[in-house]
Task: inverse folding
DNA sequence: TTGTATGCGTTATCAT
DNA sequence: ATGATAACGCATACAA
């Protein structure tokens, strides 16, 4: 490994001078600086992140938190796209990313401790149980933190606009003449609560009654659970005319169930999804759904975080809502 | 931040003693060790990874390489599942993972340099252009490296058994009576070459002729490209009776195109996919495909790498092939 | 069994 | 404009 000492020797200067030259300090002569930089390049020098982190207390490393337990695993398209754009934007701005977890090996630490252990300059909480004390501890700590799809008032956050997204879907379906809307929802999280509340509120505003039996619990990204909920809805004395699914993937479970009953979409039953993953748009009929802009959310989160890291004095928490977009497929019939 | 110095003061011993006690050195008395460990816990002590890495030359951090450019981005289900299991297994064994890339911020370094910069103990190359010089440099370096779906003879690797997988699919289709098989393939990579070679070889073994026009190029995970290829196949004077798609997701593009032509699956056209993602099994009809065990591959890769890191002396490169499994859906008609 | 001394690679302070 | 020196937190060879 080539270190500043090697460069110092090669150039016949002190290590201090090398360090300054490499970091563009103003008190080094033009020529010396150039000579040092050239030698560094020739020797293939690159700084040692550990030494730098130790000395400066800055690691240029940001932690990313996916608490898999909560069902928001990396392998779900929505989250993996967020991860990908957080990664891309962070790297563009000079930061690496490391996953933060609990229980690394046999030493147990919570998220906050793990982030400290790795000297993370900041943390992005992408998916987690935000009510858990370990998460709250991290969010309340001195480590700059940005949350996605949830907001603590002490942290910046990027929120997908679930309220408006759900409202747009309900209004669209209403405009097509539907008055019996069933809603299958995922695990109760703040996102779920927002969508459900928005669903109810919009229905109320449009004078659509929502019988209790039209609201069914299921699980995000679990076609089987939504298939089951679909079956229950179909068993009702008065069936809904349109079913809202927790997400696009879950809809596939419903699709199967509807086919089993010999019902065709949208002739016999209308459906809408949520997320707007690419898959939803290659299905036939194209799924009517609401697209969340995961890419934008990820890069926005990275930018917010790094801005805070680099300007701790002028920083104030900001909430950014990422607007989505209604994708008008062909799964809602016009029964007006 | 609480350091060993704080503990040393609190316990009235030297820093060295604390360090030894905490690392379970054999030459510290039972009681002192216990006392020190208790104080450490009370004070909420956790080691500083940077200091430790600097001193020991070991970071307990492994680099993961996803060269997005090559189409193997994190957001493709196959890769995100590999990532997830690499992450889980690494954490279980006491290692964090950090993404390795080129051009971090404005300083440009190649993969090898990036890994050195972060003192990675080892690297998993999950998806990359293995012919690129930067990749070869990394693989040939002194940094322990494990590759997925490609093997350098100096590195351990975990390979999905594409040869056997494709053979299984061809034999299955053949047994159903099909003799006109079309093959749509992804970008030319070593994986693609293996599948294509296996396809051709198995067809030859079964006396199935493969006209050149039945082999069509497309792009992995791109339904549109496969849709196009499908259209070309349908335009042929003599249509195939079964189409092999590059992967399950790509099949969706073909599905759309077949529907446009009023062809139903599998009555008018049989199809098979590859990957066996969950989606393929909730579609109706269920897709006939070959499941790659991404979870096993990821955790196997992590284990191989860490084994090498921790036993550099006894280590020898190993190639592990991960067996998959034919998922017999209902998209291949019996025309025997 | 415990303590002393040293250095990992870097940056920052203060002299020169 | 440049250099000597200390310090970041930790682990280890060696001394006691």
Result:
């Amino acid at each position: 490994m080539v270190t500043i000492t090697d460069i110092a020797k090669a150039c016949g200067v002190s290590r201090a001078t090398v360090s300054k030259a490499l970091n563009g300090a103003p008190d080094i002569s033009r020529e010396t600086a150039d000579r040092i930089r050239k030698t560094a390049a020739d020797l293939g020098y690159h700084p040692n992140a550990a030494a730098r982190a130790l000395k400066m207390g800055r690691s240029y490393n940001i932690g990313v938190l996916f608490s898999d337990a909560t069902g928001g695993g990396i392998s779900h398209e929505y989250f993996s796209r967020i991860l990908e754009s957080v990664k891309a934007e962070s790297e563009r701005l000079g930061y690496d990313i490391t996953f933060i977890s609990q229980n690394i090996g046999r030493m147990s630490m919570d998220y906050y401790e793990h982030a400290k252990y790795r000297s993370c300059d900041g943390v992005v909480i992408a998916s987690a149980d935000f009510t858990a004390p370990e998460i709250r501890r991290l969010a309340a700590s001195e480590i700059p933190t940005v949350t996605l799809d949830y907001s603590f008032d002490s942290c910046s956050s990027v929120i997908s606009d679930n309220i408006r997204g759900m409202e747009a879907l309900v209004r669209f379906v209403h405009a097509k003449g539907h008055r019996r809307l069933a809603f299958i929802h995922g695990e109760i999280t703040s996102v779920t609560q927002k969508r459900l509340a928005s669903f109810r509120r919009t229905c109320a505003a449009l004078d659509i009654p929502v019988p209790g039996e039209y609201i069914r619990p299921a699980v995000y990204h679990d076609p089987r659970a939504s298939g089951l909920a679909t079956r229950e809805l179909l068993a009702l004395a008065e069936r809904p005319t349109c079913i809202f699914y927790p997400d696009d993937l879950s809809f596939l479970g419903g699709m199967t169930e509807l086919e089993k009953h010999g019902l065709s979409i949208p002739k016999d039953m209308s459906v809408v999804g949520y997320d707007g993953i690419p898959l939803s748009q290659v299905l036939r009929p194209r799924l009517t759904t609401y697209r969340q802009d995961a890419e934008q959310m990820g890069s926005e989160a990275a930018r917010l975080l790094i801005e805070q890291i680099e300007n701790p004095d002028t920083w104030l928490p900001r909430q950014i809502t990422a607007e989505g977009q209604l994708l008008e497929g062909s799964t809602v019939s016009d029964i007006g």
Observations:
- The first strand of chain B starts at residue 61 and ends at 66.
- Residues 1, 3-5, 15-16, 19-20, 23, 47-48, 50-56 of chain B lie near DNA strand D (CB under 10 Å from a C1').
- Chain B touches chain A through 57 residues (CB under 8 Å).
